[in-house]
Amino acid sequence: MLRPRSRPAALTAAVLLAAGLAAGCGGGSNTVGPAGTGAFLALATDVAEGAVWELNRPIRIEFNHPLDPSSISFGSVRIEGTSGAAAGRPVTGSFEIEAGSGGRILVFQPTCPTGENYDDGGLLPGGHRYRLSLPTASHFGATVLRDLAGRPLARGLERTFRTPLGTEPLFLDPRPGPAEVVAIDWPRGLNLYTDPEPFLTIHFDQPIDGRASNLGPDRIRVRYSEQPASIGGDPVFLHDLPGRAVLAENCTGEGAAVRFEFSGLLPEDRWLQVVLGNDFRDIAGQTRATEWRSEPHPTPTLSEVYGAALLGWNEDQETIDEFREDFLDGSGLDPAAALRVPPAVVRDGALEAGFAFTSGISSSADLELLEDLELRTEGQFFFYDANNRLFLAQDGVLRVDDLHIGPGATLRGEGQNPLIIYVQGSALIEGVIDVSGHDSYWPTSLNSPQYPEGPIVGACGGGQGGMASRITTALTPRGDPGQTAFGLSDGG
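Given the sequence above, the corresponding structure tokens read:
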């Protein structure tokens, strides 16, 4: 059973407090308290001079007065690499004031690495040296920490440390034992197009190995039951839901969070179950002895999703989930989209260009298409329209004055280049402009599941489909994702 999710005590703080704080230099009689009097001083840090510092280990610094949070930055708290590849490379991470410290203890959490070689975190492995320093008011032009009364730091501190070598532990293990699941945020819907909820989130009690090799389908899976959840009984899980696990949070006060992103719709009225392989690792590399499985959780039925909106409808009837765009206003446009030209104008049921342009087309070049036409987008393509006018499309680019595609007519683009139509005058499309990809092939031969089915090439620069029936010795839950347009990257 899962425990209710709650924010645990600061685990890293508990570990580091046990080691004690390395005292700062010098003495003083300035008051330590909620307000504080006298000069603002750094008292101590847990970084001992020359210490070996794990890649995920927080740095704690104690002051005599409460800190002004707005003064905390990488300028007022300097952590700099001084050797090899670390020199000149920015240290990344986050600052926070430790809860329960009266605002007097500052904690820096280095960014935990996710690369296979652990070389993309806040600190680099391999014995690289770093310097921690706190500029003070005596440093001309320096950015300095302030207390809540606005007093600049009068006494700082400086320490040098290094990261572990290959024979030393790279990570501090803040909690004994393997990572435990403390909560799961289950999806409440079915990830419909009109009501997307594309992921569930798994919360762990400690940091985990955030590398891609630890988040693969052999270590994190979401399964769904064969039988409906509404009929009761013990669920039988035979199928995996297609999707991928993504690291959402790591090395926080709460531990870590992994988001499982679904591909497509969720099955209605089925049990879901999260499964962690016995080789799933926490950040220190600890694993569990056996596979871990969550308690089953049901997905809603279609009746629960639709509620009372469809009176007289029953679960046996088919439903359709779709987007409709009537082009009545611009609410469907993305104002944050990065465009090289002005965005389109949507109004009165029409989509119009948002800028004026010239195409060099005479007013006599009106295209009238009343029957189907397949236009090749590679090289020169000549064709005649319904009025016996000759047109040329060059590498998929067609320039006309007025454009009319009559009812029942389809202009189909075919080829590797996109279909681009410049219309200088008016455009009336009563038929169809089709640049969709092709349907998949029939199986290579009947009763031959041992042969994967090849990918299908898209049209007009569209992406390529993925390999189907990749697994030839068992059920293939989902085909490969394929590639995006023009093969720029793999699809998701």
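The longest helix spans residues 11-19. Try to locate this feature in the token string yourself.
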